[in-house]
From TrEMBL:
Reaction it catalyzes: N-formyl-L-kynurenine + H2O = L-kynurenine + formate + H(+)
GO molecular function, one term: arylformamidase activity
Name listed for the protein in its UniProt record: Kynurenine formamidase
Species this chain originates from: Torulaspora globosa
Active site positions, chain numbering: S106, D198, H230
Assembly, per entry: Homodimer.
Alpha/beta hydrolase fold-3 domain ranges (all copies): 27-118
Encoding gene (name): BNA7
Biological role: Catalyzes the hydrolysis of N-formyl-L-kynurenine to L-kynurenine, the second step in the kynurenine pathway of tryptophan degradation. Kynurenine may be further oxidized to nicotinic acid, NAD(H) and NADP(H). Required for elimination of toxic metabolites.
Length: 250
C-alpha cells in the first residue's frame, strides 16, 4: 500500500524525545469524525500534545504522533482500519518503534480497539499486522463508538454516516463483545474515557463497553468526567492530565 493511498503522508509528529533517551516508545493519536468528516484531521491533537509536553514534570520518554486514514464514502470498511494498521506499521519502521499505545477519540476509539483485536481475514499482509500488534501495550478509548446496533437504536438519524462507512453494518461491523478473546497478550493497559458533557454520544456506548470488558473479566481503568463537548474533549486539560498519569510503558 502506497504512502498517498493510506494517507501516511498526513502523519503529524508533535514530539520526539532527545536522541539520548529511549525513543522507541510512542503514543499515537487516532482522530474521529464518524468515518466521513474531512474536518477531523491528525492536527486536532496538537493542543493536547502541547499540554502533555508542557505539563510533564520531566521530558516525556515517548514520542507523540497522530495518524490519518481514508474516509467514506470514498472508501468503506475495512479500509479505515486497514489504513490505521498500515500507518502504524510505517511509523514503527520509520522510527524504529518498539512499543505503542493508542489514544482514539470517537471513531478513533473504535479503530484503536479494532486494531488491537484485528480480524486477520481483513488484512492482506499479516506480517505488518503482527508487527503492530506485537508492539501494542495500551489503548485509551475516548468517547468512542463500540456498538452500532445500540448506537442506531439510540440515534436512528446517525444512519446517515453509518450507511456511508458500511455497505451493511449488520454484516460488516463486529460488535465489540464478540472480539474480546482476540486481545493480544502484550496489551496490558485498557482505558475507557468519557466526557459527561458529550452532546453527541450519551453514556450508553461507554457503559456498554464497560460491561463487555467486565463480562470478559478483562482488567481496565475508567475515567468519566466533564471534559467538554464531544469535539472539545481532544483539547481538554483534564484528558492531558489523565494521560500524563496513566501512560506507562513496560
Amino acid at each position: 500500500m502506497g504512502t498517498d493511498e493510506s494517507r501516511y503522508g498526513r502523519t503529524e509528529t508533535f514530539y520526539r524525545p532527545q536522541p539520548s533517551s529511549d525513543a522507541g516508545k510512542a503514543l499515537v493519536f487516532i482522530h474521529g469524525g464518524a468515518w466521513i468528516d474531512e474536518a477531523c484531521t491528525p492536527t486536532v491533537f496538537k493542543q493536547l500534545s502541547a499540554l502533555l509536553a508542557h505539563r510533564s514534570e520531566q521530558e516525556l520518554a515517548y514520542s507523540l504522533f497522530s495518524i490519518d486514514y481514508r474516509l467514506s464514502p470514498n472508501v468503506r470498511h475495512p479500509v479505515h482500519v486497514q489504513d490505521v494498521v498500515e500507518n502504524l506499521y510505517r511509523l514503527v519502521e520509520d522510527h524504529r518503534l518498539t512499543s505503542l499505545q493508542l489514544v482514539g477519540h470517537s471513531v478513533g476509539a473504535t479503530l484503536a480497539w479494532q486494531t488491537a483485536v484485528a480480524d486477520e481475514s481483513l488484512f492482506p499482509s499479516l506480517d505488518r499486522l503482527n508487527t503492530v500488534r506485537s508492539r501494542l501495550q495500551g489503548v485509551f478509548m475516548v468517547d468512542g463508538i463500540y456498538s452500532l446496533a445500540q448506537l442506531l437504536d439510540e440515534y436512528p438519524n446517525y444512519d446517515y454516516f453509518v450507511s456511508q462507512a458500511f455497505a451493511d453494518y449488520t454484516r460488516d461491523f463486529e460488535e465489540f463483545e464478540q472480539s474480546t478473546d482476540r486481545l493480544p497478550e502484550t496489551l496490558r493497559h485498557i482505558h475507557l474515557i468519557h466526557s459527561y458533557g458529550d452532546e453527541l454520544l450519551s453514556l450508553r456506548q461507554s457503559n456498554y463497553m464497560s460491561s463487555v470488558l467486565q463480562k470478559a473479566r478483562i482488567s481496565f481503568s475508567s475515567y468519566f468526567d466533564d471534559m467538554g463537548l464531544h469535539d472539545e474533549v481532544p483539547r481538554n486539560a483534564k484528558l492531558a492530565n489523565y494521560l500524563l498519569h496513566n501512560v506507562k510503558f513496560a
